[in-house]
């Protein structure tokens, strides 16, 4: 690791050093060879940079045929659609950091993603781990302790930990507190909705966990699976268990993007006792204005997580994300994408769970550095109005196309407040609005109409 210290230089020398170092680092960042962990223990004049190279070799990947094809109309072995029930140093793009040093504050080194941190999930007493949650888990702790190795327990612990980690990181930057709202579903299960409204940084921030069970009709189960696999229930009913963590964050500042993530697990039992299971989820970014360094950081963090499990995952799931978060009646994507996958049920439950776990570990490092970077950016009334218009598009997608929202609204016993949590407090619709050519708003529209490769 190379550590460059500017604090001993005078102002002119600092400026010159920054420019020289920026030029060198921009090349590395563009080449995909640079990662910047930023520690809260460092002064603004200290930059620590670490180079890395492709991890494609030396790793045990799943077969290429399993990751396979993800385009619409093509078949992916083990990729099927769950429109599920619910929906840590942070890295920063070096060029963006140097260009915005006055606005960029540091995320904690303690949030660094490491293999040790990922493995820690499997260790320790259930009760001890639960003490770090926003509140006790949905399932009784004694039940979780009694089936510690069961996938339902492991997934519930993962989504509870993801909720707590993200909420605490958001509280730290905002200064506000989440309202923790625990709810029960009469038909079975319940959830925990954590919502912060009208904070200093976030107009509305929600991080939900749900763990529900009961019986589905065969028709309802078919609607959830993109390849329409037939599931045979007893008397037309299928016992099921669904759980997931979902979040949508709407910042006040138009230069801080909206972020969404959702990771979920579904399990159904057929008439003969056979259990079908699958995972789904993803993370995507919806900026109001394009910032290439932010886009690189976000996508590269996701790519690193995907590359640990299969070299084709990021490419396939990035394309899938662009297709899914597409507002057909507008001819534009909702944002600049990320990754998205549905119905992942091979090559093995353990391998898919480990992949989902890696993805869930990215929610802080792919987003919080961007928040800190733009925390003190000034903005105009016109920029705020543009943010409101883009939020209108967000609302349109969620209510018209999002399968998770539609499934939730149609599921008996669903908690409507937790589903509608994804919508912003405020939005705007202007008749026949089109940004002027050559503006930053027009540049944003060009990207939304023609998705780009950011890594």
From TrEMBL:
MF GO annotations: coproporphyrinogen oxidase activity
Transmembrane parts of this sequence: 79-99
Transmembrane listed as a keyword: yes
GO biological process: protoporphyrinogen IX biosynthetic process
Enzyme nomenclature, EC number: 1.3.3.3
Keywords per UniProt: Heme biosynthesis, Membrane, Oxidoreductase, Porphyrin biosynthesis, Transmembrane, Transmembrane helix
Catalytic activity: coproporphyrinogen III + O2 + 2 H(+) = protoporphyrinogen IX + 2 CO2 + 2 H2O
Pathway: Porphyrin-containing compound metabolism; protoporphyrin-IX biosynthesis; protoporphyrinogen-IX from coproporphyrinogen-III (O2 route): step 1/1
GO cellular component: cytoplasm
InterPro entries referenced in this protein's UniProt entry, alphabetically: Coprogen_oxidase_aer (IPR001260), Coprogen_oxidase_aer_sf (IPR036406), Coprogen_oxidase_CS (IPR018375)
Superkingdom per UniProt: Eukaryota
Oligomeric form and interacting partners: Homodimer.
Protein family: Belongs to the aerobic coproporphyrinogen-III oxidase family.
Protein name: Oxygen-dependent coproporphyrinogen-III oxidase, mitochondrial
High-level lineage: Eukaryota, Metazoa, Chordata, Craniata, Vertebrata
């Amino acid at each position: 690791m190379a550590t460059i210290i500017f604090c001993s230089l005078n102002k002119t020398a600092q400026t010159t050093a920054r420019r020289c170092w920026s030029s060198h680092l921009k090349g590395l960042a563009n080449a995909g060879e640079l990662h910047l962990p930023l520690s809260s223990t460092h002064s603004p004049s200290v930059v620590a940079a670490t180079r890395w190279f492709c991890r494609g070799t030396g790793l045990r990947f799943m077969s290429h045929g399993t990751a396979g094809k993800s385009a619409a109309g093509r078949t992916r072995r083990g990729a099927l659609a769950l429109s599920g029930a619910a929906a840590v140093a942070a890295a920063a793009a070096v060029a963006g950091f140097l260009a915005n040093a006055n606005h960029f504050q540091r995320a904690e080194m303690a949030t660094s993603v490491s293999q040790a941190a990922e493995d820690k999930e499997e260790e320790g007493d259930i009760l001890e781990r639960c003490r770090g949650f926003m509140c006790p888990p949905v399932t009784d702790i004694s039940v979780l302790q009694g089936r510690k190795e069961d996938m339902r327990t492991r997934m519930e612990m993962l989504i509870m930990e993801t909720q707590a980690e993200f909420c605490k990181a958001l509280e730290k930057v905002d200064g506000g507190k989440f309202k923790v709202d625990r709810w029960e579903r009469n038909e079975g299960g319940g959830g925990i909705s954590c919502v912060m409204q009208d904070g200093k940084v976030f107009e509305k921030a929600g991080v939900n966990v749900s763990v529900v069970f009961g019986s589905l009709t065969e028709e309802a189960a078919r609607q959830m699976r993109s390849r329409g696999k037939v599931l045979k229930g007893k008397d037309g009913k299928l016992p099921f268990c669904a759980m997931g963590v979902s979040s949508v964050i709407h910042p006040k500042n138009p230069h801080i993007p909206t972020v969404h993530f959702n990771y979920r697990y579904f399990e159904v039992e057929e008439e003969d006792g056979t259990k079908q299971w699958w995972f789904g989820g993803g993370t995507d970014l919806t900026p109001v204005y394009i910032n290439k360094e932010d886009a690189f950081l976000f996508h590269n963090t996701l790519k690193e997580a995907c590359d640990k499990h299969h070299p084709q995952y990021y490419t396939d799931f990035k394309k899938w994300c662009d297709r899914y978060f597409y507002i057909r009646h507008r001819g534009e994507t909702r944002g600049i994408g990320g990754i998205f996958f549905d119905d992942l049920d091979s090559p093995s439950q353990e391998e898919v769970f480990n992949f989902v776990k890696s993805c869930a570990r990215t929610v802080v490092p792919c987003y919080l550095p961007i928040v800190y970077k733009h925390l003190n950016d000034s903005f105009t009334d016109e920029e705020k109005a543009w943010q409101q218009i883009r939020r209108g598009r967000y609302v349109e997608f969620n209510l018209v196309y999002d399968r998770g929202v539609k499934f939730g609204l149609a599921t008996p016993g669903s908690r409507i407040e937790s589903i509608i949590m994804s919508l912003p407090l405020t939005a705007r619709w202007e008749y026949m609005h089109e940004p002027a050519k050559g503006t930053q708003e027009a540049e944003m529209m060009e990207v939304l109409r023609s998705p780009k490769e950011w890594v």
